[in-house]
Design a protein that fits this description.
alpha/beta; Uracil-DNA Glycosylase, subunit E; globular
Length: 228
């Protein structure tokens, strides 16, 4: 199982299918904001991260230009990650509430984190064709994570990406919402929706820490009841 994930991660890191994203991630590394000046950026596609025996898969949109694109680990070193890892720590999925660098000792238990698109996109907006080129990696991660029962989609883009990855593309697809729950993939997975912990959502109060904690309370309840 771990070997399969390593193969998927290696394929992700070596990917150069999207010229626009390649150019953007490298440009972000070449001209960082003052607070990160002098740091060496990862500036490559960012692979998933976590427990190979995970029952929970968390799917985000894409790495942040000065977050995962800088550190080399998904949701690490940016405000969205600060919110997510605090919540994961409170819920017992992470051994610490802070994630600043790839070598900071963070470990996940029962949880794996990835994204629909593995390169930082301009304005956090991947193009449809860029999403589609990357979807195969999400499908491969699901295949390499056979214990996954719950998929938590952070935001509508991730929700749509998961549905596409598991073959839900026709009419009557489940609609995204914070706290939305659906059975997908021919009943193989329970898909749970949450607002993305982006600065826009957290600064406006659309997503609060209590609301994010409630999502993980629901996740724990579903796992305890046997989501399958």
């Amino acid at each position: 199982m771990g070997g399969e994930l390593e193969e998927v991660s290696a394929a992700v890191v070596s990917c150069g299918r999207c010229p626009r994203l390649v150019a953007w991630r490298e440009a972000a590394a070449a001209a960082p904001p003052a607070r990160f000046r002098g740091e060496t950026y990862w500036a490559r596609p960012v692979p998933g991260f976590g427990d190979p025996a995970a029952r929970l898969l968390i799917v985000g949109l894409a790495p942040a230009a000065n977050g995962g694109n800088r550190t080399g680990r998904i949701f690490t070193g940016d405000p969205s990650g600060d919110w997510l890892y605090r919540a994961l720590h409170r819920a017992g999925f992470a051994n610490q509430p802070v994630s600043r660098a790839i070598d900071d000792g963070l470990e996940l238990a029962g949880c794996y984190i990835t994204a629909v698109v593995h390169c930082a996109p301009p304005d956090n907006k991947p193009l449809p064709e860029e999403r589609d080129r990357c979807l195969g990696y999400l499908s491969a991660e699901l295949s390499a994570l056979p214990a996954v029962e719950i998929i938590l989609a952070l935001g509508g883009f991730a929700w749509d990406g998961v549905l596409r990855a598991v073959g839900e593309r026709g009419r009557g697809r489940p609609v995204f919402g914070h706290g939305a729950v659906a059975r997908v993939g021919a009943g193989r997975y329970t898909l749970l929706g949450s607002y993305h912990p982006s600065q826009r959502n957290t600064s406006t109060g659309l997503l609060t820490e209590a609301a994010l904690d409630e999502i993980f309370t629901t996740t724990r309840r579903l796992l305890g009841s046997g989501a399958r």
